[in-house]
Specification:
By secondary structure, the protein is mainly α. The protein has 33 helices and six strands. The termini are far apart.
Length: 1052
């Protein structure tokens, strides 16, 4: 019969009756002489169980034109496990859990569910199947023999985490010594999914009925495959164990993978197989399976040494013993094995790790984590407030500082995500297969009508030309299945694999486009020929040389330093992508999972080293910052490799503590060491270097070098560079923190392509909670940042609040719409930080920083997609066409967003994005921006007003010129350029004439001269010079006049 039959008992009474019937047939001994348990499994005849050629035809679907390809079969019993003393060849899952006599069954009235709002570490009063009830101290090691613990004390630590289950004697249906090309179920490696199991009970009538079934219930129930009470509904029966609805829901979170955790290999046979099922007692009459795992134990070698000496030696070297054989060595002594079944109740904390509770529980849990985070920040600030060495500690800036530092990151990052979201949405609609596409039938967004027929309306039946489904993913001469022409009969899996790989091509195209775009934004062309439409007034570009006679170099196709610098940035970006993908692949391993805290610390140290290399390579802090954000994002994502959610939270606190130490002490300490390193090296050279006589010139040269080093150290200590560097680190961390939310959203949308959540053991439903945690913890982390910024004022004496307020003011009164077009750098700041200072840590800075970092991350997702799906990008015939379409889409998106940025909506006060006040603003706005410097400090407002008034007075300006006259005269030539001298001044005269007059006034300026604004009742030296004495003769004295003067001098 094409429909499987079962010989399993239908009740406990029937089971006991069948056991009594088999009792007389029991044999005294078998195999190695052990007593055979009662009852025992009876092997089925081979003709009854072999797969005939018409097996699947006998289970043909009732619909002659199905909308899917039936590649699965649902069973009401456990597959692979056959000839067992319970259930024989068809061990029913429900009867094994509910009726096995060796299990501890709790009555319905006594069953207690696990309360969601009452946390505790105890087990609920519910069914369990365990050989050792209680705390599991008698559990044995269940791993391969080469992984046995070295010390006896390590047994509990290295245990695989489950209790010993009830034992059932089974027999292999396959011959273990009959080796096949494909691995049998007991030969697969760890990580293999043997089968899938429903986590909730299903209605067997609607699934295991071979005849078509009429509609159950009312309405279209594909989306609600599980009813309110957990029942199953379908519209049309498609045969025994199959159906369209079942085909859809078998890939959802309601079906669990039964994974082999401790595997085997070819030539081995496990004598013990552990099946471990852990469940959540939701209510008295309802269990929900959470995890299901298989472990192979006590593996032995089935292959004789004479058959294959090389394989036998390899297995022997792994400490696997040979299986017992008959006296002549030709056959195995027995092919029996013990199936140990464990049904384990899960505690409250285990269920919390498995995300089995509702949103309100996790909201409360995340709130506790946020409160602990905030408390840690407050504790650090309190300790530093008590231990500060400042005579007058600064006041604590709270809400005012939060509003100042938080606005720019959120605005800039959200603006950067708009074009990326548009490009990713386009890729999603274009290549996402129908079963996983939210815009297609059955999806959450199907009502929008944006399904382009990805792979055709019926995959494998009518491939679509819009997404190149008719174009193979391999060149014909390359050979292979992928090179075969695509026809209506092409396998759906091959089409899906090509679609996933082409989605990765879209990711790489986005990354390449963003890479070149951001390199252009961060390295602008400030040459004289470059257009500068937003600039106000003439060019501020400094001439090529300081001398008037020096000529700039002639134009050349070879001399292109701007292009070289941009290419340098692009190349460093690609190198960083490859390195980070390698780190991702390592984070999937069990080694990383078992030592997650150690690797977090090592990765932090590596990040500091990479940062030093990038700064030495790119020579600009602004160019290094996007790469630093990528490294921080990698650290955040790799913490998902923790073994559980509580370990993930612990990793978060470890990262938080490292971040606090890094920002307050480690980074400033490294900066201080780097600054003092030349002085220390020179001191060591003087003390331990070769002692020889030095000439006067050499001594003078060494002394000049010593003075130069000390002057540089003094300038770096007194300047704003340490504060800027620390705030730059903060900006990178807050950017990575906010971007982590969008990374999680990306993983949710493209989980099938990247398979990153699956590699970390995170289910799609669990990823929702990780995303919610990333969103919610962002708010608390920003509060901690306020404490840390105030701590920096206490520890290092930096005026952080004044600095960020001043940067906000500078951005508000800028002359160009895009800051990098201003072409004016503050040369008093260290050269590597001048472009960073130009961006003012504004929303434009966070925009380009996050756009570059997220674009790089999307490219890394593309590389991961190629690896997961074995997709060879250069073998796809549609590669160049897909890239060209994505690049054109990027240009169109850029033009459209620029158009939106220029739109004005006066009704709501919107004058355009990043519009400058010089273009459209008021004096009141400028005054308000200036007063914002003192916002929150009412005591300083009057002082600020007096300082502004003094800056505008003529007396102050003349006094400034008088006191700084030597420096001005010395550097006047450097401040003036030939172009500026030829322009016309405000009085209509050439500027060069105005400069001559100013220079003459500076030279004639002396002490005691009256200045505009002086009081009239106070005399000056100038007034005395204007009296009668000014008319006295200046000729030398002669004759009597000379004699009288000499006499007067002698008497005096």
């Amino acid at each position: 019969s094409p429909v499987p039959t079962t010989s399993m008992p239908t009740s406990l009474e029937e089971y006991r009756l069948k056991s009594k019937e088999r009792a007389p047939q029991v044999k005294e001994y078998y195999g190695d002489g052990r007593n055979r348990p009662q009852p025992y499994g009876v092997p089925d005849e081979f003709d009854h169980v072999k797969a005939t050629g018409d097996w699947w035809d006998g289970l043909s679907i009732a619909d002659p034109n199905p909308e899917y390809e039936p590649t699965f079969l649902a069973l009401p019993y456990l597959p692979f496990f056959s000839h067992c003393d319970f259930g024989d060849s068809h061990t029913s899952i429900s009867r094994l859990m509910e009726t096995h006599p060796d299990c501890e069954h709790i009555t319905y009235q006594s069953t207690a569910a696990t309360p969601e709002n009452n946390w505790g570490d105890g087990y609920p009063n519910a069914d369990n199947c365990q050989a050792h009830s209680g705390d599991g101290q008698n559990a044995q090691w269940k791993g391969p023999p080469n992984e046995l613990p070295v010390e006896e004390d390590d047994l509990e630590t290295n245990d695989m985490g489950f209790l010993e289950g009830i034992a059932m004697q089974c027999k292999y249906e396959e011959s273990p010594t009959d080796y096949q090309n494909n691995l049998r179920w007991f030969e697969v490696q760890a990580g293999t999914v043997l089968f899938r199991m429903s986590s909730k009970p299903l209605d067997p009538y609607t699934i295991f009925n071979p005849d078509p079934v009429e509609t159950v219930g009312a309405g279209h129930c594909i989306e609600g495959a599980y009813g309110k009470d957990g029942e199953y509904c379908t519209e049309t029966g498609y045969g025994w164990g199959r159906g369209e609805v079942l085909s859809r829901i078998k890939e959802t979170a309601n079906f669990l993978d039964v994974v082999v955790e401790s595997g085997s290999q070819l030539g081995l046979m496990p004598e013990i197989v552990h099946l471990v099922i852990k469940y959540y007692q939701v209510k008295q009459g309802f269990k929900r399976i959470v995890t299901s795992e298989i472990y192979f134990d006590q593996l032995c070698i089935t292959m004789p040494e004479a058959t294959n000496q090389k394989v036998y030696a390899e297995l022997s070297n792994q400490l696997y013993p040979p299986c017992e054989r008959t006296w002549d060595g030709k056959y195995l002594q027995t092919t029996d094995y013990t199936l140990k079944f464990t049904l384990e109740r899960m505690t409250w904390f285990q269920l919390l790790n498995a995300f089995m509770f509702g949103w309100h529980t996790y909201f409360a849990f995340f709130t506790v984590i946020g409160a602990l985070t905030l408390s840690l920040g407050a504790l650090v600030w309190g300790i530093n407030r008590l231990l500060t060495k400042l005579r007058h500690p600064p006041t604590f800036h709270h809400w005012v500082l939060l509003k100042t530092v938080a606005g720019a990151p959120f605005l800039g990052i959200l603006l950067a995500m708009v074009p990326l979201a548009g490009a990713l949405t386009f890729s999603y609609i274009w290549f996402k297969p129908i079963p996983y596409n939210a815009f297609c039938e059955g999806g959450e967004l199907s009502g929008l009508g944006l399904c382009l027929g990805v792979l055709g309306p019926y995959p494998g039946v009518e491939p679509s030309l819009l997404n190149f489904a008719l174009v193979t993913a391999t060149w014909p001469e390359a050979g292979g299945d992928a090179a075969e022409p695509v026809t209506p009969g092409t396998n759906v899996d091959a089409l899906y694999t090509a679609a996933h790989g082409r989605m990765g091509v879209c990711f790489m195209a986005i990354a390449i486009y963003v890479n070149f775009l951001c390199a252009t934004l961060l390295v602008p062309d400030w040459s004289d020929d470059a257009p500068n439409p937003d600039a106000v007034g003439g060019s501020n570009e400094v001439s090529f040389g300081d001398d008037d006679d020096e000529e700039p170099p002639p134009p050349s196709d070879i001399w292109r330093p701007i292009a070289w610098k941009r290419a340098h940035v692009v190349w460093c970006n690609f190198i960083l992508m490859v390195i980070n993908v390698y780190i991702w692949e390592f984070s999937y391993s069990a080694v990383f999972e078992d030592n997650v805290y150690m690797f977090i610390g090592l990765f932090k140290v590596t990040m500091w080293g990479v940062g030093v290399i990038l700064e030495d390579t790119l020579r600009e802090t602004l160019l290094c910052n996007p790469f630093d954000v990528v490294l921080n994002l990698t650290l955040v994502m790799t913490t998902m490799g923790a073994s559980s959610f509580t370990d993930f939270v612990s990793s978060y606190f470890v990262e938080l503590c490292i971040m606090i130490a890094e920002r307050l002490y480690i980074d400033p300490g490294i900066t201080q060491v780097t600054k003092l390193w030349p002085r220390w090296m020179m001191i060591l050279h003087r003390k331990f270097g070769q002692r020889r006589r030095m000439t006067r010139e050499e001594k003078a040269k060494e002394e000049m070098e010593w003075r130069r080093i000390n002057e540089e150290i003094e300038l770096e200590s007194e300047g704003v560079e340490p504060l800027m560097e620390s705030y730059s680190v903060y900006s990178n961390e807050v950017t990575a923190l906010i971007l982590s939310v969008f990374v999680n959203l990306f993983l949710m949308a493209f989980e099938k392509e990247t398979q990153i959540p699956e590699n970390y053991g995170i289910k799609p439903r669990d990823l929702l909670y990780y995303t919610f945690f990333a969103v919610y913890i962002t708010m608390w982390t920003l509060f901690v940042d306020i404490f840390l910024l105030n701590c920096q004022e206490l520890i290092h004496g930096w005026k952080v609040y004044d600095y960020v307020s001043y940067q906000k003011y500078r951005f508000s009164v800028r002359e160009t719409r895009w800051m990098m077009d201003s072409r004016v750098l503050d040369e008093s700041i260290a050269e590597p930080m001048q472009t960073l200072d130009l961006m003012c840590f504004s929303s434009q800075y966070y925009f380009v920083n996050s756009l570059y970092a997220m674009g790089t991350f999307i490219g890394m997702f593309g590389i991961t997609t190629f690896i997961r799906w074995d997709y060879i990008i250069f073998s796809d015939q549609a590669l160049m066409l897909i890239c060209c379409i994505m690049f054109v889409f990027g240009d169109l998106m850029q033009r459209f967003l620029k158009f939106l940025a220029d739109r004005k909506f006066r009704r709501i006060g919107w004058r355009g994005l990043w519009v400058t006040k010089q273009i459209e603003g008021t004096v009141d706005d400028d005054v308000a921006a200036k007063l914002a410097i003192g916002e929150g400090r009412q005591a300083d407002l009057e002082q600020e007003r007096l300082e502004l008034q003094a800056l505008n007075s003529e007396r102050f300006r003349h006094r400034f010129l008088e006191r700084n006259r030597p420096w001005i005269l010395q550097h006047l030539v450097e401040l003036l350029t030939p172009e500026s001298l030829e322009t016309i001044g405000p009085d209509g005269r050439p500027v060069v004439e105005y400069i001559r007059d100013v220079y003459a006034e500076l030279m004639a300026m002396g002490e005691g001269a009256r200045r505009p604004g002086d009081r009239s009742d106070i005399s000056s030296d100038e007034d005395e010079e204007q009296g009668p004495a000014k008319d006295w003769p200046r000729e030398p004295l002669q004759g009597a006049s000379l004699a009288i003067a000499r006499l007067w001098l002698r008497q005096g």
